[in-house]
Design goal:
By secondary structure, the chain is mainly beta. The protein contains seven helices and 39 strands. The chain binds 2-acetamido-2-deoxy-beta-D-glucopyranose (2 copies). One 2-acetamido-2-deoxy-beta-D-glucopyranose (NAG) binds next to strand 6.
Length: 456
């Protein structure tokens, strides 16, 4: 499998040129939407968060898994990709040159199709749920997203030439049933937040509201008020912490001054030589400590910082179902939690969790099981991100209630990965212009849920 190389940091002037050429007529006419949305649901079997958008000509619905990481949208172009409007991005195109990690699919010996083109820019789509990646054409096609969420599904906003990568059918293995690709919400140049903002001329930011199973959530791109029923507007009441970029490349890719040719199926891909390193596009935040029931948990602060090699720190991941902690942090948090819960009868551990309780002996509140709060103490914030029982505890099939944190072992790349369960029914605003994360804490503590988001 190919390793995943980096995205280029491009100059503003070039990008402007690029996006003028793909700009839809409606935005040029000044009538573009101020926001677009993606509906979100949770797939029970995989615990992935899935979304749906429309693509191609004639338009068809496409189901894909949401990912806060990744470099751009990828979809399976092998199985059933039928469209009269796709176009390959030539190797010499500006958009291809902006992607330092791109290669050139020089020839494909087969009938032309979206996944088989000559002289086409290619990239390395990755299934971040399984860590499998491959090479695939970079192409453009029509993509449509709704402009409103509720009360009614609104009119669609269309991007005539949305740039994405062609994955192959085997790459969809491990994704939620029916999902044929992944939507990247990362800070990368061609991931959805930046590509949509450039197309529609709205702010480079999005809000993520992940639903628990059987509820509906949303991703809102652009400039929208965060209004929820009944009459709750969270636009002005989020708490902000800086979004951090892990500055260090961790995965070397490619060779200096050497052109590599390799073959995937019928396609010959050529990589022009230079040392590429994956530039992390994930969202990191400055966690400075953890409190349980108000008491500071003792831990090695060095692990909370990103070191010179890019190791350590705290990031958010929608592909990780639960929060994953470096072993000593996991142990310290588990011990502190157990101490506060000493009066509640324990239950045997249930994989992958260590600390479980008899579910019948734990009270229930509006914010979930009645357990100690976990506070994530963050850089430059007046208040912590308070995690209540609904986001910290996981009910198992056998009736146990477990602390939903997983041991990452002793040398994980990232010390703290905040997973999907901990983010559910929290409104999170990723503001890429101000480079900050806004968070609401658990919405039911504010009398609403992601399911009650309204727009339009
Ligand atoms: C690519 O070019 C080769 C050589 O000219 C040709 O045989 C092949 O059919 C072309 N492939 C596509 C997909 O157009
Ligand atoms: C804290 O963590 C760092 C990084 O893993 C390690 O080098 C150091 O020895 C640790 N310090 C203590 C006191 O355990």
């Amino acid at each position: 499998m190919a390793r995943l190389p980096p995205l280029a940091v491009a100059s503003g002037a070039l990008l402007l040129l690029l996006f003028v050429s793909v700009l839809p007529c409606r935005a040029a006419a000044g009538g573009g939407p101020s926001s677009v949305v993606l509906p979100v649901s949770k797939d029970d079997a995989t615990q992935q968060y899935v979304t749906m958008f429309r693509q191609r000509t004639p338009q068809v619905p496409v189901k894909a898994v949401l990912d806060l990481a990744g470099t751009m949208l990828w979809v399976d172009c092998d199985a059933g990709y039928v469209s009269s409007s796709y176009a390959g991005v030539p190797c010499g195109a500006k958009s291809c040159r902006l992607l330092k990690n791109a290669g050139c699919a020089i020839t494909c010996i087969d009938a032309p199709s979206a996944g088989c083109l000559n002289d086409t820019c290619s990239e390395f789509p990755k299934n971040t749920a399984t860590s499998v990646s491959t090479a695939g054409n970079i192409i453009t096609d029509v993509l449509s997203l709704p402009t409103t969420f509720r009360p009614a599904p609104g009119p669609l906003a269309t991007v005539p030439a949305f740039l994405f990568t062609c994955g192959h059918t085997f790459l969809t293995e491990g994704l939620a049933d029916g999902a044929t690709g992944m939507v990247s919400l990362s800070r990368a140049r061609f991931a959805l937040p930046t590509q949509l903002a450039d197309t529609f001329r709205f702010s480079r930011k999005f809000a993520l509201c992940l639903p628990p199973a059987s509820a509906a959530g949303v991703v809102v791109f652009g400039d929208a008020p965060y209004t929820f029923q009944p009459g709750v507007d969270l636009s002005k009441s989020l708490i902000y912490t800086p979004l951090l970029v892990n500055p260090v490349s961790t995965v070397p890719y490619g060779r200096k001054d050497k052109t590599t040719k390799y073959f995937i199926g019928e396609t010959t891909i050529q990589l022009k030589g230079r040392v590429w390193r994956e530039k992390p596009t994930d969202y990191f935040i400055g966690l400075t400590g953890i409190k349980v029931n108000g008491h500071t948990v003792p831990m090695n602060a060095t692990l909370l910082a990103i070191d010179k090699k890019g190791v350590g720190g705290t990031k958010l991941s929608t592909v990780s179902p639960y929060t994953v902690l470096e072993r000593s942090i996991h142990q310290a948090v588990t011990d502190a939690f157990a101490k506060e819960m000493a009066a509640i009868p324990r239950a045997p551990a249930v994989e992958p969790f260590q600390l479980c309780y008899d579910g019948r002996k734990v009270g229930s509140t509006r914010v979930g099981p009645s357990v100690p709060t976990i506070e994530l103490v963050l850089e430059s914030t007046a208040a912590s991100w308070v995690v209540f029982g609904a986001n910290s505890m996981v009910a198992t099939k056998g009736g146990a209630l477990c602390l939903g944190v997983v041991d990452a072992g002793t040398e994980p790349q990232t010390s703290v990965v905040i997973g999907g369960h901990m983010m559910e029914d929290n409104l999170l605003e990723f503001d890429l212009e101000a480079s900050r994360l806004g968070f609401s804490s658990y919405l039911p503590s504010r009398q609403t849920t992601c399911n009650n988001f309204r727009l339009g």
